[in-house]
Design brief:
Elements: H1 14-27, H2 34-39, E1 48-53, H3 57-67, E2 73-80, H4 83-97, E3 108-110, H5 114-119, E4 125-128, H6 135-144, E5 148-151, H7 159-174, E6 179-181, H8 189-199, E7 206-215, H9 229-235, H10 241-244, H11 247-250, H12 253-263, E8 269-275, E9 290-296, E10 302-309, E11 316-323, E12 326-329, E13 334-337, E14 342-345, H13 355-369, H14 376-395, E15 399-400, H15 401-405
Parallel strand pairs: 1-2, 1-4, 2-3, 4-5, 5-6, 7-10
Antiparallel strand pairs: 7-11, 8-9, 8-15, 9-10, 11-12, 12-13, 13-14
């Protein structure tokens, strides 16, 4: 029996179906059922093609972790502001996943506009891991390009940036795009266990929280000959607020996010203090080396927050809470009753340093099932929590959440950078030093 002409047509691949369905859903022609939108993102056993924008240590690590997940995940395009970082990242990824790396020279993009070329490539998902000051721009562009997104924290360094991320998140929802943010504690078993019990009332009404990221600090990259000011600041990005948001935003956000998760909300105001006690060299840019913030939540409960980059001091990276019926070491996975007796110990086995990997296992498993995680909103608001704290410590004022998130103070216009000859947002004085915030004199807005 001869086959009909219809039966001779090549069978459409799942990838073809995904692309076709995505177009239908985006056009609004068949918002007919949720199953269509979900089907548009059910990758099953298909290869998921990813691109990387920001090839530093975290971008490289996130890409390797994404490619460690079950199923085929191939990297096909990469971008960075600096060619040497891209090449180093590519070598690292190849050493772990050589067979899954398909990034020929014509899909290696360098420069301020390199992100556009990655987003124009045939990718399903993009990893955003540039310095945080660029995150709102890149996230908005990725959503507009119709890509799923994994983006590192923090997602912004100022109020306008946070609002931009929140607006792009709404577009992502309408386009049925998945978004994950690198706040990996939310994916660790021990954290999930203890937060669930605390939210169920294990220690009663929670009225006081404490959070710490106290350590010795991070790397310094001294100025090199023939660098322009903008290139110097971007290579030494951790020490410039317009790029990293200060270490309260870049690191301490993890602890602040845990408390926001616990409270299922965000602070309504903050006051604090901070400064530069020991890290005040010519290579230390403009950020503080210590912050202390008192956050107030809508129910009147308080969070006392510390982050410090000073060697030789008491160190802790942890979160704690006290309630009407006991207290808890959240990071340690321990709950105690009023008498100080331990009544619960979370399963922390395997959690240590595994959250970065688990978040990718979770993300790609959901994509393959056709589910669309959306973490942009709490990622943006936890970033705003850190920014709120920085505004309080820099100014010495009590700052309300609504005033901070609606502020028009934009630290840098990163959309208009095109070369390293462009003027950097902050400039050194004749001695090579930068203006430092002075509490009581520095304006918060």
């Amino acid at each position: 029996m001869s086959k009909s002409p219809e039966s001779k047509k090549p069978r459409a691949s799942r990838r073809d179906f995904i692309k076709t369905s995505s177009i239908i859903v985006a056009s609004g022609a068949a918002a007919s059922t949720l199953s269509v939108a979900r089907g548009a993102h059910a990758y099953g056993s298909d290869t998921i093609k990813i691109g990387l924008i920001g090839c530093g240590g975290r971008g490289t690590g996130a890409t390797i972790q994404a490619m460690n997940t079950k199923g085929d995940v191939n990297i096909v395009a990469m971008a960075d502001a600096f060619d040497n970082r891209l090449q180093s990242s590519l070598r690292s990824i190849q050493s772990r996943h050589g067979a899954k790396v398909d990034v020929p020279q014509d899909r290696r993009f360098v420069g301020f506009d390199a992100y556009k070329q990655v987003l124009a490539s045939d990718i399903d998902l993009v990893i955003l891991a540039t310095p945080p000051g660029f995150r709102p721009l890149h996230f908005e562009a990725a959503v507009n390009a119709g890509k799923h997104v994994f983006m590192e924290k923090p997602v912004a360094v100022d109020g306008p940036g946070v609002r931009r991320v929140l607006e792009a998140a709404q577009v992502a929802k309408k386009k049925s795009l998945a978004v994950q943010v690198g706040l990996q504690r939310r994916h660790e078993v021990g954290y999930k266990e203890i937060i669930a019990r605390l939210q169920d009332g294990a220690i009663g009404d929670i009225n006081l929280m404490r959070a710490y990221w106290n350590g010795g600090g991070v790397w310094v990259r001294p100025r090199e000959d023939n660098q322009t000011e903008l290139e110097y600041q971007m290579r030494n990005w951790y020490y410039f607020t317009w790029l990293c948001g200060d270490h309260i935003d870049e690191q301490h956000i993890h602890n602040l996010d845990v408390i926001n998760w616990l409270k299922n909300g965000f602070p309504v105001q903050a006051n604090g203090m901070g400064g530069r006690e020991v890290r005040n060299g010519i290579d230390h840019g403009e950020i503080f080396d210590h912050h202390f913030v008192e956050y107030t939540y809508a129910d009147g409960s308080k969070l006392f927050s510390q982050c410090r980059h000073i060697k030789g001091c008491w160190n802790s990276v942890s979160e704690h809470a006290s309630g009407s019926n006991g207290h808890t070491n959240i990071s340690g996975g321990l709950i105690y009753n009023k008498a100080g007796e331990m009544i619960f110990k979370a399963n922390k086995k395997g959690d240590q340093n595994q959250g970065h990997q688990q978040e990718h296992h979770d993300f790609f498993a959901l994509l393959r099932k056709g589910e669309l995680p959306m973490e942009a909103e709490y990622g943006a608001k936890s970033s705003m929590t850190a920014v709120l704290g920085r505004m309080a410590t820099y100014s010495g004022k009590t700052i309300k959440w609504e005033d901070a998130i609606n502020s028009e103070t934009k630290l840098a216009d990163v959309d208009n950078f095109h070369s390293y000859d462009d003027e950097a947002p902050v400039q050194p004085n004749a001695e090579g030093r930068y203006a430092i915030a002075v509490p009581g004199r520095t304006k918060p807005f």
